[in-house]
Design goal:
It contains 6 helices and 4 strands. It is of the alpha+beta class. It starts with 5 loop residues before the first helix and ends with a strand. This is 4-vinyl reductase 4VR domain-containing protein.
Length: about 170
């Protein structure tokens, strides 16, 4: 038996986790329809974020208590992405200024999965919702430059946007 190195293990665990996530969404969809599946997905994401962000920041020794600052926000988001982003998640994010985070998705694994299920028209992006939940936990007000109701890849053919933080 071959031993996996740390990056291989992380990638495998993330793929398994995302497969579980997609399977869970699919079965909610089959049982309850797209509206309820989206609502339940967002509720689960919010609950997950409330547990995972403090867990990740504690493990990485990132202090998130007190009044949020641009540096703390940036450090917490980078820390979270360092744990939950896999190589198969083909997106980039960056901070062009202290109060803006931008991202660009080259190929979205969630959108591709929803297309395979034939429901990309009704899917509401859980990935952006998760990042928003992290920001909410940090106590920072924000707005999304181009508001997203569903899935940008489906609606516009691309996914690229900015979050403006209000400190």
């Amino acid at each position: 038996m071959r031993k996996l190195d740390q990056s291989e293990l992380k990638e495998l665990l993330l793929k398994c986790w995302m497969t579980h996530d997609g399977s869970w969404f699919y079965h909610c969809l089959q049982e309850f329809g797209i509206y309820t599946a989206n609502r339940l997905n967002k509720a689960a994401i919010k609950t997950l974020a409330e547990i995972e962000l403090p867990r990740i920041t504690k493990a990485l020794e990132i202090e998130i208590g007190g009044t949020p600052t641009p540096a703390i926000l940036r450090q917490a988001l980078k820390g979270a992405f360092s744990v939950v982003k896999g190589e198969f998640m083909d997106f980039d994010y960056y901070f062009p200024s202290e109060n803006v985070m931008e991202w660009k998705v080259n190929k979205c694994f969630a959108y591709e999965g929803m297309k395979r299920l034939g429901i990309s028209d009704g899917y509401e992006c859980g990935l952006l919702y998760r990042v928003g939940a992290w920001i909410d936990i940090l106590g920072v007000d924000y707005e999304i430059a181009t508001p997203v109701q569903g899935c940008m890849m489906n609606e516009k053919g691309f996914c690229s946007n900015s979050i403006i933080f209000k400190f």
